[in-house]
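User: I'll paste a sequence; please echo it back and then give the predicted structure.

Assistant: Echoing your sequence first, then the prediction.
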Amino acid sequence: MPHVHVLALIEHSNVDDEIEERLGAILYPHAYYFEFSPVTVPCECIWSSDEGIDAANRTVGDFHKLWHAFHSTPEAHRLQWTTFIKEWEDTASQTTRSSPHAKPPDPQCDVCYGSGTFITTTPPTGLRYEAWAPNQWEKLGRASEISIDPGQFDSIVTPDGQAYTRYHILRSQSAEEWAEHTRMLLRHHADQLAIRCFVNK
């Protein structure tokens, strides 16, 4: 099980318990074992499901960012989850089916049973790691002040729960483009506390 470093950006605190609570809020939803409310996603048997999910993340909003916003809204003032996430689901499904790389749904598929979509309660996108030890993290300082090699992190998670992952969302970019993207995120979140976290993929 490979051990990788993730750069997490959270609201500043000097209290370890607060730091771990804030890290958990943005990291736990990226774990394979985390259970979401049900969401309908395109099936991999169509071949272009990644394109559909990427399009929904770009045009409607990153799934984890939407999840974080949904649960940050008081229950009395938010929509039902099925209504809230419907545009994301529809965009993912429609883009998948309209892709030139799409194949007809496989009637023998044991996931979607030929429908082309299925309901899941596990993360449809994001880091999707196997394990994170809450006590394994290191404070690097404010994002505006730290001096690091921007290329040493393959994944960055921002305070809104969105993950930027070099080999998925930005898989077509070069190492220098990814390093510049990292520097841009650090500038954008200059007042946040930067934490080096250790996760098992």
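The chain has two domains: 3-31+127-200, 39-120. Helices lie at 16-27, 49-59, 63-72, 81-84, 86-98, 175-188.
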